[in-house]
Amino acid sequence: MNGFNVANFLKGLEALVTGDGFKRVIQGLNINSIRVAGLIPTASTEPSRESLETSFEGLIVSSSQTALGDVTFLIPRDYDEGVDKLDLRFLVNSGGDTNTPTIDCAMYRKRAGAALSSDIDPTISAAVNNNTAKAGYVEVRSHGDGWKAGDAVTCVFTTSAHTTDDFHVYGFEAVYASDLAYYEDDERSISDE
Questions:
Q1: Torsion of CA 164, 170, 171, 172, to 10 degrees
Q2: Do residues 169 and 61 lie in contact, with contact meaning Cβ atoms separated by under 8 Å?
Q3: CA distance 120 to 180
Q4: What is the CATH classification number for the domain harbouring 96?
Q5: How many domains does the chain have?
Q6: Is residue 5 part of a domain?
Q7: Which stretches within 1-130 are classed as H helix?
Q8: Cα–chain center distance at 62
Q9: 193 lies in some domain
Q10: Residue 18's Cα: distance from chain center in Å?
Q11: Region 137-158: what's the mean pLDDT?
Q12: What is the three-class DSSP state of 149?
């Protein structure tokens, strides 16, 4: 007999966000989405796509560089404006223990019928772990910045304070608070009617 399984349903929703809404990940936005001057990072670009550890590729920002890259994406249609939380998460560490590097982000919004915003200047959660054996998450937090479903977002990421050691990026994701309901700001029809 096939029936509704509450545990499987909740697991499929990923994890609940404290307060209103649900925690969701923007599908398709990952470390492979990061661009450098519009190009996909390779072994000869900066940052470079290289082996960080045996059998594990990621991005390396050399000690002499600060550009981490940029991403552009749309705020999903199920974004919960009432909670208004968007986090861009990097799994990172330093290539050495001399520096305590940081990530910074210039974030811009383009909305239908509006001019490009100035830098929204999101909050950064913490410095990068300088333990070379352990990576940790650093979050670019944009909470309460008035995002709406359908907004276009460009993020320009830079690094600082790593003049001696390389900077390693193992992963990247964008998580947000979702109301799990499709929200259409201007109620446009997608049918031919």
A1: 10
A2: yes
A3: 26
A4: 2.60.120.260
A5: 1
A6: no
A7: 6-12
A8: 21
A9: no
A10: 20
A11: 94
A12: coil
